[in-house]
Amino acid sequence: MLRGLYLSATGMVVQELRQDVITNNLANASTGGFKSETATIQSFPEMLLQRLEKGRATPVGCFSPGVMVDRIHTNYAPGPLEETGRPTDLALLDNAAGTPPAFFAVQAGATEAYTRSGSFQVDAGGFLVTPAGYPVQGQYGAVYVGTTNFKVDSSGQVLVNGQVVDQLRIVTFDGPTLPLLQRQGDNLFTAPQGVQPLPAANFQVRQGWLEKANVNVAREMVDMLAVLRTYEANQKAIQAADQTLGKSVNEVGSLR
Amino acid sequence: MIGALWRGASGMQAQQLQVDSLANDLANVNTTGYKQGRAEFTDLVYRPVQEGGMPVDRPQAPAAAPALGAGVKVAAIEKDFSQGALVSTGDPLHLAIQGEGFFAVYGPGGEWFLTRDGNFHRDGDGYLVNAGGYFLEVPFTLPAEAEKITITGEGTVTATINGETQVLGEINLYNVPNPAGLEAVGDNLYRETAASGTAVAGRPGTAGLGTIRSGYLEAANVDLATTMTRMILAQRAYELNARSVRVADEMWGLANNLRR
């Protein structure tokens, strides 16, 4: 019976975490290049219960002590594109469906970070930077675009006054290493130690376009309702367990 | 759960800023040389999930600890310096820039600003001044007897003085490496900052600078349809976040009512 209490409590904790993930998705529904997340849930490893009877242990059956959040899974599906007409806005288009997404590489302090949000600016020195001021990387480090109009062609080549000056560093990750990417805020992902990005092949750069968040609002709302009701159900289960416990503590053996 | 409340609140706050920015764009839809803003959103930091009170023998160590995001913020409201429509006024001293660049103007106190608002006129002493009385940075004055003033696309100012056509001088345009870094100070003026870089003068039509169109004013580049669409989106996003705050509150209520 106490187990039942704890079991339902793990259920409430997990639904709370799911709600945290959903609210983060909804809060970022307008964030450029944002990739939505889903918390996946799994039950704790089952254990075999045994009963002691006449000095002998006989198996009762399997029992799971509750649920927990397994992973927070990132959905890397492309978001819709919006035309802005601004030369510093770049969007990445993944050519083949099902291939791992391509990312712009930016230098965030000492580490290299990756982003899908192509809303860049030209800084005071003439370099292409993110809104947080991190320089966008080309083949030779930071990309210098100067003060004049620059062009980025679909393969990521940067042209200033019609001359190719650099090629954007656009990378991808192979299937198994993609889920290891960590989010850093500021629309950035970083790779953990030992995971190396690969040069991307199946992509197109669109200048003057922006990728929006890939949050599916209707889906998130439905999930949020499901979370609320599951949370409520677990609460009811705890109350029922508590009532049973109350009965056994206060009523069993009372003489009236 | 309290976390969900804050996340929802961060979303509401960000959308509120977006609506403020859009409302300012709408208010300035008839302001000469006004440039609309664009709110840039970024997600906030992520922290690893710590599941307190859970069994320690997890089935397998996860590849990366799941991390929860902390919401959203407005990273910047960037000015969109795209071209506004040119409106013909017929006054040769009304100037518009077709393409990139800014006029440089001096305030009465000697302070220096950049502007796209070319609503100039001649003051009593022959200086070219804008509506706020700021002087256009030119090395000449317009004599009172100057007639038939023409200003070419390259900024050359000629006038007929006592029946004789004279070149009075040239108007230069200025450009900065990062216009988005300029500080808007109101009155259609922008101030150079460390983020924008130093303004460089140039002849109109050269080095990426636009040309001057005399007899035109540049209208605000606010696109009403786009702005209204963004307003609708911002309102719905605000509602979404309000909804998630309400759900988080309901969940909190359920937890509070565990013990009746």
Please tell me what the overall shape of chain A is. elongated
Proportion of helical residues of chain A: 10-25%
Number of helices of chain B: 2
Identify low-pLDDT runs of chain B. Answer: none
Assign the structural class of chain A, choosing from mainly alpha, mainly beta, alpha/beta, alpha+beta, or little secondary structure: alpha+beta
Structural class of chain B: alpha+beta
Total domain units of chain A: 2
What's the number of extended β-strand segments of chain A? 21
Give the strand line-up of the largest sheet of chain A.
Answer: 8-7-16-19
- Largest interface in this structure: A-B, 69 and 73 residues
What fraction of the residues of chain A are assigned to beta strands by DSSP? 35-45%
Question: What is the end-to-end distance of chain A?
Answer: 26 Å
As residue ranges, the low-confidence spans of chain A are: none
Q: Report the radius of gyration of chain A as a whole number of Å.
A: 26 Å
Subcellular location (chain A): Bacterial flagellum basal body
Protein name (chain A): Flagellar basal-body rod protein FlgG
InterPro entries (chain A): Flag_bb_rod_N, Flagellar_basal_body_rod_CS, Flagellar_FlgE/F/G, Flg_bb/hook_C_dom, FlgE/F/G-like, LlgE_F_G-like_D1
Family (chain A): Belongs to the flagella basal body rod proteins family.
Describe what this molecule looks like in 3D:
The complex is a heterodimer of chains A (256) and B (260). Chain A is of the alpha+beta class. Chain A has helices at 2-27, 217-250; strands spanning 37-43, 47-53, 56-63, 67-74, 81-83, 90-94, 102-108, 111-115, 121-122, 128-129, 137-138, 141-142, 150-152, 157-160, 163-167, 170-172, 182-185, 188-190, 198-199, 203-207, 209-211. Helix content of chain A is 23%, strand content 35%. A 4-stranded antiparallel sheet of chain A has the order 8-7-16-19, with no helix packed on it. The model of chain A has no long low-confidence stretch (mean pLDDT 88). In chain B, helix 1 runs antiparallel to helix 2 (224-256). The longest helix of chain B has 33 residues, at 224-256. The radius of gyration of chain B is 27 Å and the shape is elongated. At the A-B interface, helix 1, strand 1, strand 4, strand 9 and strand 17 of A face helix 1, strand 1, strand 3, strand 4 and helix 2 of B.
